[in-house]
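hey so i finally got around to running the thing on that chain from the lab meeting. sorry it took forever, my laptop kept dying and i had to restart like 3 times. anyway pasting the input first so we r on the same page abt which one it is
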Amino acid sequence: MSVASPDHDHWMRHALRLAQQAAGAGEVPVGAVVVKDGQVVGQGANAPLASQDPTAHAEVLALRAAARQLGNYRLDGCTLYVTLEPCTMCSGAMLHARLDTVVYGAAEPKTGAAGSVLDVFSYPQINHQTQVVRGVLAQECAAILAQFFQQRRAANKTLALANHPLKDTALRNPDSAFCEVPDWPYQPQWHSDWPVLAGLRMAVVDEG
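ok and heres what got predicted. didnt touch it at all, straight out
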């Protein structure tokens, strides 16, 4: 189901602001907000790095906050908005919380469990059915993720270059030489301590 309404847009923008907060803290930018009767009852921004907690996804943090606010882990009548399609863990938690609706922005083709890789919400055997609304402000939600990973790749490249300085006499391939390679730029691993390199630097890329 793909439906966008003014209310959906409004709350997804709230989740996007939380995603920006996560990005500012160095976390993958995902934000989530739980809404009931037009009021925020819980919200969360991705924090697995800061908390050293693999379950500290934005959705889980928002569910925890909503359960505390309402005094009940069952979040009947609630809608959760999240900027990225939830993973299997978060989707299971949403079903366990008895959410009425889950609304997400960008699809996650690698780990998405609300229709991309699998659809946890589609099994009629599960005793609670949660409605899923897909693709609300999808481009904006995808853009913040793309920008984050682009900046992180650039920072990693700068660090790699600093650790492996290039001789003035070395050949430099322009970025345009790789423009037709799918999904470029990949993240290279630099080597400069091999005897055969005679002090030169080599970048090795292995994407499997």
